[in-house]
């Protein structure tokens, strides 16, 4: 377990603190991801639209949209997009980014498992869920609720797309790095602040498997004062088989899992080829 000392500050420890108290720092922590990775993930999603949707995709619902990185990228590509997220703190930042860009996009607070409470049936041609957000469905029942929720708002022939780490590859890397091994890094924050991060992972359940992602964040102000937080989020790493079985149980007519890499994009799984990331594509 990571040992830490907090000087001249206080410690906040709460689940999902990354998306509430730390929301204003999110884009600073993930600046490289937003700049370099998000456009490639959107490329992959658009490829999946074209290959697997049985209708033209124009209207997209981006669930678990956070600060709107993929949502706004889809808008830039010419799609009509609505972003939804559980955390209002993240949505406020997304709305401000959209205003600055002059983007025509609406952001709505909503639980991804209960989309029917906000959106009517058959409202969208595609539903997307990026950046491992689907892994927060740590119980099988929640995964099924999520998929049924997406199915409800999809038009016939529409697609649901979500990305997640391949658990076999992730656990291989975790074994090589060592459970609980800390990765330290820094980033520039707003208003001259400095962000100091320590990341590590703990295995809660080796069978499902459920991983607890932990991050200590120290926000150092220019005057030297420090505020400290610990992120503690539970994530379930679903296999490709589990994803396809869940989509079938939820009622999708067709589902597949593709391998993704930054170099090759989306590919059919092949023996002997490293598959670090999975893209679930389920068609209504």
CATH architecture of the largest domain: 3-Layer(aba) Sandwich
Order of helices and strands: EHHEHEHEEHEHEEEEHEEE
- The CATH superfamily of the largest domain bears the name Vaccinia Virus protein VP39
Radius of gyration: 19 Å
Number of structural domains: 2
Count the beta strands.
13
Terminal-residue CA separation:
44 Å
β-strand amount = 25-35%
Count of helix runs = 7
The overall pLDDT, averaged over residues, is 91
- Residue windows where pLDDT falls under 50 for at least 5 positions: 1-13
Lateral strand order in the biggest sheet: 4-3-2-5-6-13-11-12
CATH topology of the largest domain: Rossmann fold
Question: Structural class of the secondary structure composition?
Answer: alpha/beta
Q: Tell me the overall shape.
A: globular
Q: Largest sheet, if any?
A: 8 strands, mixed
Query: What's the CATH class label of the largest domain?
Result: Alpha Beta
Range of helix content: 25-40%
In quaternary terms, these chains amount to single chain
């Amino acid at each position: 377990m990571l040992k830490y000392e907090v000087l001249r500050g206080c410690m906040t420890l709460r689940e999902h603190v990354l998306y509430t108290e730390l929301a204003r720092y999110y884009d600073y922590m993930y600046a490289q991801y937003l700049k370099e990775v998000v456009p490639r993930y959107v490329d992959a999603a658009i490829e999946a639209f074209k290959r697997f949707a049985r209708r033209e995709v124009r209207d997209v619902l981006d669930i678990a949209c956070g600060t709107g990185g993929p949502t706004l990228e889809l808008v830039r590509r010419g799609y009509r997009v609505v972003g939804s997220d559980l955390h209002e703190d993240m949505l406020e930042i997304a709305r401000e980014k959209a205003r600055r860009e002059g983007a025509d996009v609406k952001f709505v607070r909503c639980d991804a498992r209960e989309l029917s409470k906000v959106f009517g049936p058959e409202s969208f041609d595609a539903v997307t869920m990026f950046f491992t957000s689907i892994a927060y469905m740590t119980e099988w029942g929640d995964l099924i609720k999520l998929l049924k929720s997406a199915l409800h708002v999809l038009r016939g022939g529409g697609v649901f797309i979500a990305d997640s780490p391949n658990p076999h590859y992730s656990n291989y890397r975790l074994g090589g790095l060592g459970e609980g091994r800390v990765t330290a890094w820094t980033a520039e924050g707003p208003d001259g602040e400095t962000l100091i991060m320590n990341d590590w992972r703990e295995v809660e359940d080796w069978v499902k498997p459920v991983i607890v992602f932990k991050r200590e964040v120290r926000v150092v102000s220019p005057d030297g004062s420090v505020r400290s937080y610990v992120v503690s989020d539970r994530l379930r790493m679903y296999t490709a088989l589990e994803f396809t079985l869940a989509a079938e149980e939820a009622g999708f007519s067709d589902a597949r899992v593709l391998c993704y890499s930054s170099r090759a994009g989306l590919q059919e799984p092949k023996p002997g080829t490293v598959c670090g990331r999975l893209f679930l594509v389920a068609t209504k």
